[in-house]
Amino acid sequence: MSSPSEKELITARLLGIAKAKKEARALLGSHGQAMPLFISILRIGTPVTKLNVAATLSALCKDDDLRLKMLLAGCIPPLLSLLKSESTEARKATTNAIYEVSFGGLSDDHFGALRNLCGEKDGYWRAKLKAGGVVTIVGLISSDNAAAQSNAASLLARLMLAFSDSISKVIDSGAVKALLRLVSQNNDTSVCSNAADALEALSSKSIAAKKAIIDANGVPILIGAVVAPSKECMQGEYAQALQSHATRALANICGGTSDLILYLGELSQSSRLAAPVADIL
C-alpha cells in the first residue's frame, strides 16, 4: 500500500498527465479501476489527494465521453462533500470539477443520473441540503473569485433543475440577492450569464421564487441584463446567453412571453421613477 505522501505525489503526476495530452486522458478514462479509485480518494483521501483528483476530473471533462462516464461513476456526491472543505483551493477545484462534469449535462439523461446518484437512492442530496450544501454554494457565489462565482452559479442552476425540492433552501440562503448582485454589477460576462441562468432556473420552478426576485427589485435588473450586451458592446456566446437567460427569467416571472410584452408595455407608461423606461423601449 502506498503511503499518504506517495499517494499525493502519484495523484499530482496523474493531474499533470491529464492536463498534458488528449491521448493520456483517454487512457486514464478507459482504465477499469480509474473512476472507482478517484471516487474512493475523493471520499477518504488526504486534503491534497482530494484536491489533485478534483482537478484531474476537471481535466478529464475536456472529453465528452469521459464527462458522462464520470457522472455515472458517482463523482457528484463526494464532490459535494468536498465543497465543505476549509481549503479555498479545494473548494475552487471542487466547484470547477462539478461545473465541468455537468457543463454538457443539461439533457434529461444527465439530470436523471444526477438525481439517481444524489437523491432518492441513498438520500445523499437531501443529506447535503440539511448539512448546508446550498449555503456553501451560495457562499462561493458571494466570493471574490470570478471563476468560482461563475461555476457556482451554473452549478446552482443545474441542481435546482434536477432537484426542485432545493428551491426553498436556495431562497432562504439569500441566493436571490447574491445572484441579482452578480447580474447587475459590472462583472465578467460569464459570471453575469451564469447568474442569469440560475435566476431563470429559479423562476421556472417556484411561485415563491418569482416573488423573491420581484421583492429584491429583480425585474429592472433583469431588464437591464437583456439590453446590457447591446449598450456595453458585449460580444461572444456569454453575451448572447445573458440576454437569453434574462429574457426567459422575465417571461417566467410574468407568466409567459405574451404577458411579459404586455407588462413591459404597461411599465413603459408608468409614472414610477424606478421604471427603466429607456431600457424597456
TrEMBL record:
This is Armadillo. ARM repeats lie at residues 174-218. It comes from the Eukaryota. Keywords: Repeat. One of its GO terms (molecular function) is microtubule binding. GO terms for cellular component: cellulose synthase complex. The keyword Repeat applies. One of its GO terms (biological process) is regulation of cellulose biosynthetic process. InterPro entries: ARM-like, ARM-type_fold, Armadillo, CSI1/2/3. SMART domains: ARM (SM00185).
